Amino acid sequence: MKKLLVTGSSGLIGSEVCEYFAGLGWTIHGLDNNQRAVFFGPSGDTRWNQQRLQSRITGFVHHELDIRNRQGVVELIAGIKPDAIVHTAAQPSHDRAAAIPFDDFDTNASGTLNLLEATRRYSTDVPFVHMSTNKVYGDAPNRIAMNELDTRWDYADENYVHGIPESFTIDQSKHSLFGASKVAADIMVQEYGRYFSMPTCCLRGGCLTGPNHAGVELHGFLSYLVKCNLEQKHYTVFGYKGKQVRDNIHSFDVARFIEEFIRAPRVAEVYNLGGGKENTCSVLEAFQLAETYSGIPMKYSYEEKNREGDHICYYSDLRKMKSHYPQWSITKSLRDTIQEIVNNWQKRLT
Q1: Which residues in the chain come in under a pLDDT of 50?
Q2: Distance (Å, rounded) from C-alpha 176 to C-alpha 92?
Q3: What is the domain range of residue 319?
Q4: What is the CATH number of the domain that holds 82?
């Protein structure tokens, strides 16, 4: 039976990957030390998700380990001998990173290096999938000519009608400290692939979402927005008139793509992983969708100052992914995803 190691296994993507591959018959090893609760406080606690995995996945093995523990990571991988590794553990907030720069870099950059080197020492044949971020592009996408529409911004430049491609520059832009630490990890994952001929992959995620997200204000756009709606708490919109646009991809479709890559891995690949143009929404449009499925009017306030390095409009060009893995496609629409998030929060809040 094949063994999968998932870091950040109690998080949104990590937990989805655990369940998905368990359904394929893999033995699942999850690495998570609930660091999200340290970064974000009680609202970021993911122990509930760890317990859910332990109750739902037969043979699930939880490893309480911090990826910054270099020797611990080496010993863990050598002991498990995984057939594939999916690395989702991270400090995920570009706002939070400014307050904890060493924790951010040590987790995102050094932690990823620890995993790569431990993997190389064990085997250079093990597929290594890294959850990167679209923040590696910094605010460079904001330099693209934009059209302002009634409820959103969109690209005016026809070169980006399909979204942002993997060839887009990551240079000469403001990334936030989080974006910079993720760039370091992203490049290192590519370098281990090229230098050691390892099957590595960087997935530069847009808004990764789904019903099992512990959304907080600093990370987890749709999940946190829905939670505010259901609890009748004010949601703060930061800049761009609330018309900033994101493409949203359900965690299930992320797991499906990871399966495709592990089944037919490539060396040092990079993919922009999002919902694509069809699954975009602005903050204002997300309010309308949340209200549609909850029946509760949204309460929100507006601050003129946008978040540092935030994108005005970002959606992923999925053509490279689909050309390399034509069996993969988006199966969960934005509306279906938001309805799932609403239903899940309603259960968790009662």
Answers
A1: none
A2: 12
A3: 3-348
A4: 3.40.50.720
